Amino acid sequence: MSEMKLFIRAHDLGVKGEDAVAARLNELGLDGVQLVAYKVLDDVSYSPGAITEERTKAVNEAFKAAGKTVPLIGAYFNPVHPNEEKIKNGVAVFKDYLKMAKALGGNIVGSETGSYNGDKWTYHPQNRTEEAVERVIRTFSELCQYAEDCGVNVGMEGAFGHVCYNVKTLERAVKTIGANNIRIIFDLYNYLDKSNVDQMYDILSEGLQTFGDMICVFHIKDCVIGEDGSLKQCGVGKGIFDYPRILGEIRKVCPNANLVFEGTTGDDIPYAVSFIKNILKTL
Fold first, then answer.
1. Tens digits of per-residue pLDDT, 229-283?
2. Whose CB among 51, 153, 159, 175 lies 3.0–4.6 Å from 181's, allowing a Cys bridge?
3. pLDDT (0 to 100) of residue 191
4. Running DSSP on this structure, what letter comes out for residue 11?
5. Is the sign of the CA dihedral 206, 207, 208, 209 positive or negative?
6. What are 74's strand-pairing partners?
7. 3-state percent helix, strand, coil for the chain, nearest multiple of 5
8. How much is the mean pLDDT over the chain?
9. Using 50, 70 and 90 to split pLDDT, how confident is the model at 29?
10. Do the Cβ atoms of 160 and 123 come closer than 8 Å?
11. What are phi and psi of 130, to 5 degrees?
C-alpha cells in the first residue's frame, strides 16, 4: 500500500472557515490542505500583519481535532511584478506566513517565480532573461534567510509562462540561492504548453531526477487539448494525464509524496478523490 497522502487546496472546497474546511475534508476522506489562509478565512486579508497568533491557533486546533495536516502554506506573490509596491507587499505577507507557519501546523510556505506580465501571471519575453532569473534569486534568497531564522522552509514552483519556466532554470535558481531550506512544489501541468505537451513524461522524469526528495508537494491536475492545440484544465481523471504512469513514477522517487489537488472543484472533487485513491491501491 502506498504511503502517499491526498490533499486539496482549501479554497477549492467551496467553503469558508477552518471548521467547514475540516468537515469537508472528513466527508471527502482527504488528509489535509494546501492552505492559502486569506482565500479561505473571511477575517484574514492579503496584507502584512493580517494573520494573527490568535487566528493561527484556532485554525491549527480545528485541523488537529479533525486529524488533518497542512503540507504547504500558500503565500503566492509575483517577485518580478512591474509594480515594486506589490512585490514589497508580497514579500511582507510571505514573511508573516513564514513566522506563523509552525503555529498553523505547517513548515513550508510557497510561491511561484512570477512574470513581468504582472497580475496576469502569463508569458512575457522578459521572463526568459538573465535579469529575471537574478531578481528571482535575490528575492528568494532573502526569504530563505528569513525562513531559516523562523526554522521553516521556502517552497518554489516553476511554470512555463514564468521566470523559472522549465526544470533546468528552477534548478539553476535553487543552486545559486544555495539554501538548504528550499523545497520544490512540482506541478507537471504548469510546465506544459502546446509546444511541449507531447514531452510530458520526459518533463516529469527530469523533475523527479533533478529534485528528488526536495519535492514537498506534487500538484495533481488534468487537462484536455483544444482544437487550436491549447491546454485547458479539467477535473482530475477526465483529461489526458496517465495517472497510473505518473503516480507510479512519483512513487519510485518519493514513496511518501504529498499529492495536492489544485483547481479541481465542485462535483469534480469526489470523482477525482475516488479516481486517484483507486490508482494508489494498485501501486
1. 999 999 999 999 999 999 999 999 999 999 999 999 999 999 999 999 999 999 9
2. 153
3. 98
4. G
5. positive
6. 110
7. 45, 15, 35
8. 97
9. very high
10. yes
11. -65, -40
Q: Which amino acid is at 204?
A: L
Angle (deg, nearest 10), helices 167-177 and 130-150: 50
Model pLDDT for residues 159-207, shown as the tens digit of each residue: 999 999 999 999 999 999 999 999 999 999 999 999 999 999 999 999 9
Q: Reduced to 3 states, what is the DSSP secondary structure of residue 92?
A: helix
**225 phi/psi in degrees, rounded to 5:** -105, 125
Chain Cα centroid distance, residue 98: 15
C-alpha 249/C-alpha 255 separation (Å) is 10
Burial of residue 247 (CB within 10 Å: 0-12, 13-18, 19+) is buried
Q: Packing angle between helix 18-28 and helix 53-65, nearest 10 degrees?
A: 20
Helix residue ranges, H only, the chain: 18-28, 37-40, 53-65, 84-100, 130-150, 167-177, 200-211, 243-253, 268-282
Beta-bridged to residue 5, according to DSSP, are 258
Cell numbers at 14, concatenated: 467551496
| pLDDT exceeds 90 at position 1 | no
What residues contact residue 1 under an 8 Å CB cut-off, 6+ apart? Answer: 280, 281
Q: Which residue has the cell 512513487?
A: 251
Q: Can you read off the three cell numbers belonging to residue 217?
A: 508537494
Q: Which three cell numbers stand for residue 215?
A: 519535492
Q: How far apart are the first and last CA of the chain?
A: 7
**Single pTM value for the model:** 0.97
Query: Environment class of residue 84 by beta-carbon count within 10 Å: exposed (0-12), middle (13-18) or buried (19+)?
Result: exposed
Residue 259 to residue 24: CA distance in whole angstroms: 17
> In this structure, are residues 134 and 89 in contact, taking their beta carbons and an 8 Å threshold?
no
- For residue 193 the three cell numbers come to 504548453
Q: Distance (Å, rounded) from C-alpha 70 to C-alpha 131?
A: 34
CB 186 within 8 A of CB 218: yes
